[in-house]
Amino acid sequence: MADNVIEARGLLKTYGSQRAVDAIDLDIQRGEIFGLLGPNGAGKTTTILMMLGLTEISGGTVQVLGFNPVREPLEVKRRVGYLPDAVGFYDHLTAHENLAYTARLLAIPRSQSGRRIMEALESVKLADVAGKRVATFSRGMRQRLGIAEIVMKQAEVAILDEPTSGLDPHATFELLEMIRGLKRAGVAVLLSSHLLDRVQSVCDRVALFNKGKIALMGTVVQLANQVLGAGHPFLVEAQGADIAGALRGIEGVQTVVPEGEGGWRVMADRDVRAAAAQRIVSVGGSLTRLADLQPSLEEVYTRYFQEARHAA
Ligand SMILES: Nc1ncnc2c1ncn2[C@@H]1O[C@H](COP(=O)(O)OP(=O)(O)OP(=O)(O)O)[C@@H](O)[C@H]1O
Q1: How far is the CA of 176 from the centre of ligand 1 (A)?
Q2: Could you tell me the distance, in angstroms and rounded to a whole number, from the CA of residue 97 to the centre of ligand 1?
Q3: Exposed, middle or buried, 50 (CB in 10 Å: 0-12/13-18/19+)?
Q4: Residue 38 Cβ < 6 Å to ligand 1
Q5: Where do transmembrane segments lie in this chain (predicted)?
């Protein structure tokens, strides 16, 4: 399966006559962070549960690291780390004891488990509370312990269901940093979320779910091009000349719209920022800011669902 760690083809889950997951095709590549996005009930969790062999598949196929999660659930569980929405640790045990328990279930040799547990706890900054009972942990600490379990396991794939929900901004920032750490260690990460700005900051690619189907899939820029139209928007702040006139004269520039005090939002059919900087200087202007305007996933998502509602 080339460099794909997960491959789904026509993957289907029905509940009675309802298609919770409607024949999706999905490839997750080694070492990427992939986001499953979509409103409540769109089918994200059901897709994850099928990949883990935790719910029956109604049709199609899914392979995880070359294994069939229905027929070979233990092979999948051994190699895949899973962080569910509510992480299930034993409250009366310490962080260290919880990981030691998992290590025993995974049959990690005792000669290795002590070191692997401490390294994993250090990697998520929980080493100093290793001896504290999990009952005393905040949600952020429990999520980090979940990541530590994935690190200790040396999983090749991590599947995280709404990992940052219920976390404050600082705890979210820390957790996302740890998710990036998993990627740096070569782990493929699949995460579901409805918190779009946070997903945008960490995901290489995303799939937008709608009513059990994948409506859009690709990088944030690709999705923005599909939904909002192609183009390179950027922001210019400059004074001292006819800046708008200078910008409009550049080949490829489509629109120049004033934005704020001494600012313009420029849309071009290609990246013309270097030409814009030269032109402003050559007409005697003084350039104070030239910023790429990354499309926001929030805009893509909102526009997509507005259009989907109109079409319905
Ligand atoms: N055990 C079940 N029995 C019947 N219907 C179910 C079951 N589990 C999920 N569904 C339905 O399948 C659809 C997809 O649910 P799923 O939980 O996968 O969505 P989701 O995108 O993960 O949403 P959320 O963000 O709310 O978890 C929903 O309509 C849901 O009601």
Answers
A1: 25
A2: 33
A3: buried
A4: yes
A5: none
Q: CA angle 7-65-40, nearest 5°?
A: 50
What distance in angstroms lies between residue 26's CA and the mean position of ligand 1's atoms? 19
90 lines ligand 1 (CB under 6 A): no
Phi, psi for 26 (deg, rounded to 5) = -155, 130
The CATH number linked to 112 is 3.40.50.300
Residue 190 to residue 147: CA distance in whole angstroms: 13
Q: Is 284 in the pocket of ligand 1 (CB under 6 A)?
A: no
Q: What is the pLDDT of residue 2?
A: 57
Q: How far apart are CA 217 and CA 226, in angstroms?
A: 10
Q: Is the pTM of this model over 0.95?
A: no
> Average pLDDT, stretch 126-154?
94
Residues 214 and 280 in one domain: no
Choosing from 14, 17, 37, 44 the residue with most ligand 1 atoms within 8 A of its CB, the one to mutate for a pocket test is 44
Residue that terminates a domain, selected from 196, 218, 240:
218
CA distance 297 to 207: 11
**Strands in the chain per DSSP E:** 4-15, 18-29, 33-37, 59-64, 80-83, 157-161, 188-193, 205-210, 213-218, 232-239, 253-258, 263-268, 286-292
Q: Whose CA is nearest to atom 7 of ligand 1?
A: 15
Q: Is residue 111 part of a domain?
A: yes
Q: Per-residue pLDDT for 103 more than 90?
A: yes
Q: Quote the ipTM score.
A: 0.94
Q: Answer whether 46 contacts ligand 1 (Cβ < 6 A).
A: yes
Domain of 274, in residue numbers: 226-292
